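Example noted here:
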Amino acid sequence: MAKYPMIRWLKPMNRVLYALAPAMVLAVYFYGWRALVLLAVVNAAGFVCEYAFVRQYGEPVSSSVFVTGVLLTLSLPPTIPYWMAVLGMVVAVVFGKMVFGGFGRNVFNPALVGRAFLYVSFSMHMTARWLEPFAGGWAGFLHYSGGAMTSATPLAQLAQSQNISLIRLFTGFHPGCLGETSAMALILGGCYLLAKKIANYRIVIACLAGMVITQTALWAAGIDGALSPVYALVSGGFMLGVFFMATDPVSACQTNTGRWLYGGLIGLLTALIRTFSVWPEGVMFAILLANTFGPIIDFAVKARKSGRSPS
């Protein structure tokens, strides 16, 4: 067998990791060094799992597996057991990517496949065990883990009409998943991806517009449980989903018109799921549903341009 490198580093994937760095640093600041250990364990599991598949073809592991590992880790609660996170990563790699033929062929965002599996399989650990973030001074940099336990997240509190500081939501000083709490860090990383043209601006703008328009309509109509659009934008995992998961170049639409429709669908579905379902966070399901319809949207767009009937 010919020699080959263990890892194939892909420049776009490296830049996604750079963009996620602020959120990763704040995850440690808010929740302690356990967040970094969890990140290392999940990525090691992902590398081993993908290597087991690609080595028989004499191919290296692509650096995209680390993007999947970081995204999955940042979308998890700080208290999740290590073995659960590893299991989620294995599902992400095997069923989110390898069953479709490996890198570049997956229909769904792999990190979201792993998170959805954990969400439906271990709902207690994924939805009810949260920590109050450390604050002040070196905060979590001086601790392995800790903080007061709480069962409430901002979306749950907002749904119950409890007042939460918008500044705390934006900066991240509130309970939540490791990398979803700070909209500020995610927007900073997202702007970097847009500037480097790694994330498609059409998807981002359409997602934001779809969410704001739908959420504003529901809120203005006085629908029970409908959040203010400003609070809806900066709470939960919306910013992580918009900038880093919806823009996945493989599972997103490939046509420009399709990207506008795809992004708008994610924003629309996020607002509807958050308002009318039992799940306060709707971004994950919205993106997976949009992934499902992405190829159909592209086919319809191409058929329309060529003058053929989509049927």
Remarks:
- The first strand starts at residue 7 and ends at 8.
- The CA atoms of residues 193 and 199 lie 5 Å apart.
- The chain has one domain: 7-298.
- The first helix runs from residue 11 to 31.
